[in-house]
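Justification of computing resources. Each target in the renewal requires a structure prediction run like the one illustrated here; the chain below, 314 residues long, is used simply to show the kind of job we budget for.
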Amino acid sequence: MLYLTEQDVTNLLTMQDALDAVETAFKAQATGDATNEPRRRVRANNAILMTMSGAIASLNAFGLKAYSVARGKARFHVNLYDTATGELLALIEADKLGQMRTGAASGIATKYLAQAEAKTVGIYGTGWQAQSQLAAVCAVRNIQSVKVYSRSEEKRNHFSATMSKELGIEDISPVAAPEEAAEADIIITITSSREPVLKGAWIKAGTHINAAGGNSILRSETDDEVIRRANFIAVDSKDQARMEAGEFVFPIEKGLLTWERVQEVCHVVAGNVAGRKNANDITFFKSLGLAIEDVATAALLYRKAQEQNVGRAL
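Resulting structure tokens:
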């Protein structure tokens, strides 16, 4: 098998690669060509191990991602297998892979749900995952201005300067009040907050929202009013959302939302479901992260590594 390190992944994987892989995964999901198993968790000695698996028949690939969290440190690996032989093709260190495919999922949702002329972004969160979220959105829309909110002034200032240089966008600026970041065509929430960071009262008509920070039923980055105002609501997987989408818990209990209103974004990508119907629609995408996104990205990485003779054979 081929072993790829974090540095190998960083050298090989571009944002366009990740966008292509995730779009492929969503189209396969819509046609039944893909199978996805939601995240599972086991705990012992104050540590946690999470596993998620998936298959994409047209890529002749299936695999799993396993990641552990212990003593505040997370470790990620993807195992990629050949469906024809069952052979383990690659073992891939997957922190960078996960960051890129998570950003790409929001990028693809933005491609199909945001207004075509969207030019401004508001982002809540300034961590590792926030970098790829913003990069992906900027890859699918002609973004000219970004407002960055974090509770930490130092972090929002640093993130703004770093991403301005990386993306070549001059107008990426920190804001001190959270409502200022909501004055945008596209909003990204990518925080670890258990309480809402985005309020529906702040959002203007026509906004597209990517809520990508939480994957726990106990966490919600948006308040009930965001869900109430949304004209179209999508997730990457309804099965996974029922277990992990904290943003939907209270709105469903209060009768503000039903599962029948929630669509899987793959059907928008495949053209089976209409997403945005007019310029004033508020669209909402809840990203939880799917194993098929990892499998598609890993398959692309494996092919590129073979072509460029990257990695170590074990």
